[in-house]
Amino acid sequence: MEKSAGGCPVEAAVKLIGGKWKIVILYQLVTNGPKRFNELRRIFPEVTQRMLTLQLRELEEDGLINRKVYHEVPPKVEYSVSELGQSLHQVLLHIQDWGLYYLDQKAAKN
Amino acid sequence: MEKSAGGCPVEAAVKLIGGKWKIVILYQLVTNGPKRFNELRRIFPEVTQRMLTLQLRELEEDGLINRKVYHEVPPKVEYSVSELGQSLHQVLLHIQDWGLYYLDQKAAKN
DNA sequence: CGGTATCCTGCCTGATACTG
DNA sequence: CAGTATCAGGCAGGATACCG
């Protein structure tokens, strides 16, 4: 008998990082350090403000990133990976590696 | 200057494996070998037939899986990973590893 | 068995306006 | 600056029924 759903580690992982923009956001924060809200907006212009907010909130709720508010004027909010988010570093690098491999393969076909 | 969108390998990878059920489907095919349509349905009862079909079609279009039709009665269709899909093996294992780590961490907190 | 076809809901987008 | 609010429109995804 094989476990399929329920406690499957792969499904658990996908639940956390499977959001539409979560992987790229995490990749950005893991490799390039903490970023402010509008910095992320500039980095991902194709992500709407609403979706960026939602994805960041979900990542925060799942404990993958930290949200630090600086009570200054003008206000400043910085997003950074948590310890749990940092533990995804290798996974994210492997995804990037595979992406490179895939793009190479595709380029070689032309 | 940093590349953010466009040819980013991470975004390219997410485009291919970022579908709602693609990672778990690929994981299943990579680790447990070729599967028929209704086998996959039984393994993932929470995925609707329509979505399973759509995700399989997209995976096929992107060259990640192969679809082999046996012209028998009753009909038989077998899905298996392609060479490109097989190249995701390590990535999928890393995702699984991280899922295990995450579930452990969560369990430890209780 | 392995799918389509159809309808329907709900999320996502895009634009714009507003707030602490 | 870092959001929230709202609304129109589109498209992804769900439920059900039907088909070769």
Automatic annotation (TrEMBL), chains A, B:
Concerning Gene3D superfamilies, the annotation shows: Winged helix-like DNA-binding domain superfamily/Winged helix DNA-binding domain
User: What keywords would UniProt list here?
Assistant: DNA-binding, Transcription, Transcription regulation
One GO MF term on file is: DNA binding
Q: What's the superkingdom here?
A: Bacteria
Which SUPFAM superfamilies does UniProt cross-reference here? Winged helix' DNA-binding domain (SSF46785)
The residues covered by the HTH hxlR-type domain are 8-107
| Name of the protein in its database record | HTH-type transcriptional regulator YdeP
Identify the taxonomic lineage of the organism of origin: Bacteria, Bacillati, Bacillota, Bacilli, Bacillales
